[in-house]
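User: Teach me something about this protein's shape.
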Amino acid sequence: MVDYCDALRSPNAWNFALSLFILFGILVSYLPQHYRIIVRRSSEGISPYFVLLGTTSGTFAFANILTLPTSRADLACCSKISAFGCFAGALGVAQIGVQWSCFTVILLLFLLFFPRASPLSPPRHPTSAAPSYRTAVLVVGICITHIFLTVIVHLIFVYRFPSQLKACAEFFGIAGTILAAIQFLPQIYTTWRLQAIGSLSIPMMCIQTPGSFVWVGSLAGRLGAAGWSTWGIYLVTGVLQGILLIMAIGFEMRDRRDRKKHDAGGPERTKRAVKNSSGTVEERQDNERTALLGGEGQN
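Assistant: First, the predicted structure itself:
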């Protein structure tokens, strides 16, 4: 153990700088998404199942690195090395902890700003495919319950079955990888169905997509092949988020072209019929998209 801790006394300057850069990058990357939801005062366009899978996979990922023997050994060395060495050794844990915290904020903002109907304001999503407020509350409840259960399982293995910690960490990692592998599928479907990004933040995805692969390299360098269950999660999410980013940029560019044509006095669009009780299917694709988004409809 002493020899292992000696290796952490003088951390590699390049690895330390990269890990610190990634830590702040993770924090900064989520701020555009938090800001967009708050400014729009709506989480419209964000799939509740994307939020559910993202939060639960993030919880498993955080539990994985906290349970992984390599990470526990790094943290145990803090009593034997300098504060700087301890901080450098704990950066891997801090990175995933910040990522989990930031996504949990999205979970809370998703519920707080979830579009709700009132007697004076009809539902913005009149179709049956739109998620209900009850679904949003259920998603938050499941996520909170999952966090508590994961903490309990982690503590049981730490204090009752310490010899099985590696197996427990791999279970958390595999479960997190499976959830992460399908995390973006509901959001990809929702964005495609709406044909618009809604409250999704393109700047967030522009930062996170390439950042995911940098993070994979950093974690793989720190944990090695034995930590595949940790960095594998972010390899999968990086690929899927890249697909969503390409789709979102395509829709945003198309909408900007439409707005420019409209502002320039382009061909007049057919006025959309509105019914509060059910959606109206229009012949023109742009009017269909407006109806799905529940926006103010362009003439």
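Now, about its shape. Residues 160 and 239 are 38 Å apart (CA to CA). Residues 268-299 have pLDDT under 50 and may be disordered. If you'd like, I can walk through any region in more detail.
User: That's plenty for now, thanks!
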